[in-house]
Write a structure and sequence with these properties.
By secondary structure, the chain is an alpha/beta fold. It is built from twelve helices and 16 strands.
Length: 355
């Protein structure tokens, strides 16, 4: 299948959760043998408007992401020239969805739009966001939380599909556990991390035998470290900073509990890695976070609404079997997630009478 991925910016230019998800889909499609063309602003040096990298072909529709208006004008023709079977577009900027839709009309193929939810709700104008929700044949979101937001933006509920982020289950199996701490939290340490909830809960349990590892870095790291000292639990809470994916897996496989307290999360990817690595999941519920969706109706999951409930959940988690991998999360493997996308592609093409 020939797939055109339309995105003004790519993961080569900016590191966001939405673009990293688009990268995983793009590279997974190419690795599976599909013909993938990324229509973007040029991120490479030189004058050539095309670049092959791996099994992906990048087309520089414009030179640099600053040429926003030119990209919108040129995108329909760029899509038609690739002659794709389907167009997979990002919803950032939302204004690019309308020309992507025009391009699919020229190419006589369906349009799928990826709406991750970290920026789309405020980017561009209200009209552009409304069209970004309504013009595609299907909008894909990572969680039910974002699905609701897309419907509120104007999408037909029947045209919104939830496909989660994927993880590499085989990589988890191949990584040895690191028994660094019994409790782990992994996230960028900004104000939204809300790490104080976990620290206050742990302070309530100072008479119990626990140790905690905080993975991640960010502007609030010093403040969180200071709070741990003020609560007199700093000798049992280790801040390890940014770690590689293999280091994070090892820490999670060696831990018993993963605590998620972030106030905002379109999809709690780090929590998913922790759950698949055998951790019991404890999620502090917040209206702008979809993290609780990963622990709902699971025996090894808790949803809390206060520091006291979080502390109680940590104690209760101690009664559950200790694992270093949870095979029930194999359905989140990247190959399985890619199959969900491919099934969506096939369904769209059948619906359009293209098969």
């Amino acid at each position: 299948m020939r797939v055109a991925v339309a995105s003004l910016e790519t993961w080569k230019q900016r590191d966001t959760e939405a673009l990293q998800r688009l990268r995983h889909v793009t590279e997974s499609l190419a690795n599976r043998g599909h013909d993938v063309h990324v229509l973007c602003s040029q991120w490479w040096d030189g004058y050539g408007d095309k670049r092959e990298e791996g099994d992906v072909t990048y087309h520089g529709v414009v030179v640099g992401p600053g040429a926003h208006r030119s990209y919108l004008l040129r995108l329909p023709v760029a899509i038609a020239s690739v002659r794709p079977d389907i167009v997979h577009a990002g919803a950032l900027p939302p204004a690019q969805v309308t020309p992507a839709s025009v391009g699919t009309t020229l190419a006589r193929c369906p349009l799928l739009v990826e709406w991750y939810g970290d920026e789309e709700g405020t980017a561009g104008s209200e009209r552009a966001r409304r069209w970004a929700a309504r013009r595609p044949d299907v909008v894909v979101t990572p969680s039910r939380l974002v699905e609701t937001k897309v419907r509120e933006a104007g999408a037909d509920g029947d045209d919104v599909h939830v496909i989660p982020d994927g993880i590499d289950v085989e990589r988890i199996r191949d990584t040895d556990p690191d028994d660094r701490g019994s409790i782990v939290c992994a996230r960028r340490l900004d104000e939204g991390a809300n790490l104080e909830s976990m620290l206050l809960a742990l302070a309530e349990l100072r008479d119990r035998g626990w140790s905690a590892t905080v993975v991640g870095d960010g502007p609030q790291r010093e403040a969180y470290e200071r709070q741990a000292r003020d609560l007199r639990i700093d000798d049992r809470v280790e801040f390890v900073g940014s770690c590689s994916r293999d280091e994070r897996i090892a820490i999670c496989r060696g831990a018993h509990v993963f605590v998620q307290t972030a106030r905002r999360s379109s999809f709690a990817t780090e929590l998913l890695w922790g759950l698949a690595s055998g951790c019991v999941g404890i999620v502090e519920y917040h209206a702008d976070s979809g993290a609780h969706e990963l622990v709902e109706n699971r025996a090894r999951g808790f949803r809390t609404t206060s520091e006291q409930e979080l502390a109680d959940a940590i104690v209760d988690a101690g009664d559950l079997e200790r694992l270093d991998i949870d095979e029930s999360f194999a359905s989140y493997d990247r190959d399985a997630v890619l199959e969900e996308y491919l099934e969506c592609y096939r369904s769209l093409r059948e619906r359009s009478g293209l098969f």
